[in-house]
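Running this now, will post back.
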Amino acid sequence: MGRVLIVESPERNAVPFPGRLGIVAGDALSRPIVTTTDSPIHLWAHELAEGASISLVESAVDRLLYVWRGAARAGQETLGEQGLVIVERGAVLDVAAQAPAVILHFFRAGDRPDVAARAGGHVHVITHGNAPKGTDDQGVIHTLFAGSDYPTCELWFHRTDLPAGFEVPRHYHTEDEIIFVVSGSMLLGRRQLTPGAALAIDEGTIYRFRAGPDGLGFLNFRTSNPWAVLADQNMVAIDEGQYLRDLIRTNPASAH
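Update: finished.
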């Protein structure tokens, strides 16, 4: 049976990040967002003062660090807001804040080792301006940061921006996912989720939502390429990776 876990408040108490998970958070204030023992993928927020750093030390799982606020340096690369770095399992990297920063940290839970056979060992830096974007005929903009197409890593990460009032129909995905609201609001049943809210959704869980009056922007993390199945359209299945790559190629969108 499917499950949706909703975390509405980003102001959770800071705690030491578990060192056994392959990252040393140093002087960062680490806030758990999705960390329950039965969640297959986790999300933390690391708050770094200028000059503070976190170190990834040969983790057993692939990790994705996204600059939600501020700016950071990943190795020799500079990341502004909406930039990210993927650190594959076995790789090593230091990330230092160049200004006060909040870094979102997504990964498969430590007690659930990666099922992918890809080798790992690499680091990928993606700036917001370099991530390909596409827009559909309803004004929805998709930004594909990572589409499970690295030869050594299967992580998936995208951003979607919906116009005001846009309704996403009932559907489910073939992969566990975390959604993180970054702009506008998400109307989910009677709840209104604003920036900083997160949803952890098990694979096979049917759900729907609507963009609020100011639209909706959200991030979506999965550990592998997903398919979407439309529950009210004869269970039509869509390869999301292929769909987004086709959209970006035929109708690219400008940076925003």
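The two ends are 38 Å apart (CA to CA). More later if anyone needs it.
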